[in-house]
Amino acid sequence: MTNPRHRPGPRFGVNYTPSKGWFHHWLDFDLDAVRADLDSVAALGLDHVRVFPLWPLFQPNRALIRPRALDQLGRLVDAAGERGLDVAVDGLQGHLSSFDFLPAWTRTWHRRNLFTDPEVLDGQTTYLRTLAASLADRPHFLGMTVGNEIDQFSGDPHPDPDRITPAEADAWLRRMLAACEDGAPGRLHLHATYDAAWYLDDHPFTPAHAARLGAATAVHSWVFNGTAQRYGSASFEVGQHAAYLIELSKAWAQDPRRPVWLQEVGAPAPHVPTDRAAAFTRTTVAAALDCPDLWGITWWCSHDVDRSLADFPQLEYGLGLLTNDRRVKPAGRALAAAVAEARASADPPATRSTALVVDLPDDAPERAACGPGGRYFDAFMRLAADGARPAVVLADRAADPAHLAARGITELVAPGDLVPAART
């Protein structure tokens, strides 16, 4: 399955946060405001947006998917296409910027497990299939993401999780992805987790799920996860975090050429101070572009959250490439310049021939060693700082010559092979 609107080289886009009303704009949909937002996005030289229908507004009852909401989404996709922007659509929203958006038919008096209840599953699959089918004939529709970081509903630290096993997570993902494919065959359908899938011990959504199910692997890179706090906002580790996640994901992929989509990355203040946002953007994009098989980079986010809206975490208000009144910020100028430079170069990244060996099983119940402060995280960063451009390979694959050859790996390094670096 490939991108239906393939362009040479990696794609560059943005997660679309409407400048008026944030994602509540679906309640007062204003196509002229959307067009103005998309004009400001296109002016940065980007080629796609990722958009977020709010699930409770589109499917307020399990038996009701609102035709007017589908029509509004279609008009947004058409408006984007008129500006040369392709559109990826998320389905089960789900979780956004610290807020949960779940339909009433899954909560309180109707409390049912989001991942295992038969009626909820029927409602979800019908919704995803319908959403995808409503867009299937639009040439600028890229495909569906099942939902935004919906794995956060499955365990800690969520305050009211729907507990499941890895096997149940696998079954749920396969069914949701099949519904997307039924609705819009051949498009770029995938799922997206937050970094608990890579870093949190015993999380039911595993690295293997992320790297093997769907048409591409999505990684979401946020340095407020302990990376900036532990190593410092101007550290090498902060600048390389996105590249690390891209390469870490490949360790679990069965296809050595599986595309990886850096689907979310942003400069969250104060973890990345405002006066360093442009430098962080340049460094992060350059590091990600040095990773083979990168499908694209989609920055979070397009426009700042209007400060008249209450109760967001402070870091959420200033993540935009553009202000709430559509003025380009330093990070936006830095991304636009990086995009222009990348498109002017026809050289793909070189193969990463040195691989860090990660001794974890497929289901990786103990994966904190991959996170900030973990032995694999620190070993990767040490190799990268020394200029090795490391890949990552699982220990059981390190003994497979065919796998290593397919990835161009000629040197294997274990954390124990490295002399600890002195920190100042």
TrEMBL record:
Entry keywords, A to Z: Hydrolase
Its protein name is: Glycosyl hydrolase
Task: Select a single GO molecular function from the record's annotations and give it.
Answer: hydrolase activity
User: Which superkingdom heads the taxonomic lineage of this protein's source?
Assistant: Bacteria
Organism for this UniProt entry = Streptomyces roseoviridis
